[in-house]
Amino acid sequence: MSLRTPLGRVRGLGSAKHGLDHWWHQRLTALALIPLGLWLIASFVAQIGNDHDAFKAWLGTPGRSVGMCLFLFAAFYHMKLGLQVVIEDYIHTRWINMTLLIFTTFVCVLLGTASIFAVLKLAFGG
Amino acid sequence: MAQVERPLSPHIQIYKPQISSVLSILHRMTGVALGVGTLLLTWWLTAAAYGVAAFTHAQGFMASWFGQLLLLGFTFAFFYHLSNGIRHLFWDMGKGFALETMNKTGWLVVIAAFALTALAWVMGYSMGGGT
User: Fold this and answer.
1) What is the pLDDT of residues A9-49, one digit of tens each?
2) pLDDT digits (tens, 9 = 90+) for B47-94
3) What ipTM, to 2 d.p.?
């Protein structure tokens, strides 16, 4: 027998059952970002002072393009999940909370799409 | 919702800062800072996709004193978040919760973050950066 009132059930309140996925995906992306992030920093260091041609030639190999896209996907997904937790913890006014959650999600998708597109354009020689 | 005035338990302004609490909030702060840093990363990559002029402009900004200061901050935030993130992953596996271990790994994270930041910048400057 359920102790929930019919009204509560109709409103569909309660756990959305998405908590575990959020937690797990944050850890998965964290794990992926350990090697990818270290590789990225090392690459940044190596790219200091390089001009456009040299940078394009460096990034243009299939391995590096794929590595960069993987980093960007994992990083922006990790960022979306992390910012969501911070907002949910500290912003208690409902409409500000929702606005920030929507805004940060859009920003992550926008930056992620733009940067991955940039890598692909450089790789395919646009 | 009606707000009822109830006594509050002591909060962060009462407690003395400890290594555990300071590193915990620093993990969140560096995470948010790195989120801001992705703007710079996206600018750099899209500038490269736009062409020589845009890329040269972006590279010029990174080489300016303000760009260097930002990059230094982001480098530290990155290495701190990375090191402390690994510490978090061990906690997720149920390891390293003893108070003494927590304090030890906490200081290890601080040392690693400074050391790796210094290493990256020494390597950067010795490999032709800052010219």
Assistant:
1) 777 766 777 778 999 999 999 999 999 999 999 988 888 87
2) 999 999 999 999 999 999 999 999 999 999 999 999 999 999 999 999
3) 0.89
Q: pTM value?
A: 0.89
Q: How many other β-carbons are positioned within 10 Å of the β-carbon of residue B125?
A: 13
Contact A30 B51 (CB under 8 A): no
Tally the domains of chain B: 1
Q: What are the structure tokens assigned to A61, written together?
A: 């190999």
Residue-range definition of the domain harbouring residue B83: 22-126
> Which residue type sits at A101?
L
Nearest-Cα distance to chain B for A45, in Å, is 5
Domains defined for chain A, CATH in brackets: 19-123 (1.20.1300.10)
User: Residue B119: its chain A contacts at CB < 8 A?
Assistant: none
Mutate to test the interface with B, among A38, A44, A88 (most CBs of B within 10 A): A44
Given an 8 Å threshold on Cβ–Cβ distance, is B124 in contact with A48?
A: yes
Q: Is residue B81 part of a domain?
A: yes
| Token pair listed for A69 | 């896209």
C-beta atoms surrounding A99 within 10 Å? 13
